[in-house]
Amino acid sequence: MTSTATASFTVDQWEPQATDEFGGTELARVAIAKTFTGAVEGTSKVELLTANNATSRAYVGFERLEVAVDARKGSFVLHHTAGEDSGMTVTILPGSGTGELTGITGKADIEIDGEDHRLTLTYTL
Is 10 left (phi over 0), alpha (psi -120 to 50) or beta? Predict the structure, then answer.
């Protein structure tokens, strides 16, 4: 059965570090930490690799969540990909669930509206 869990989150850390620049494109690594409240409760650590230039930007990343989802405690990994033309895709990495979240699969939608950040997790467990 598919379930949905929604949470607000804050970005507690955002540390970009430029790693390379060539032909007008900058590559960077970004370390991020988040805190979630709501049906997803806990914290996460994110590692992103980004590419930016005057006409486009894209990133890939992995986010390890140590959370309770609908009161089930454990951890899992989200796989992020995004680009100017492809939009954002965030999926649960199959096999990454631990504890009461062992076997979790699904996807996440992230909405950012100014200071408001929201995660909607659509999952099967």
Answer: beta
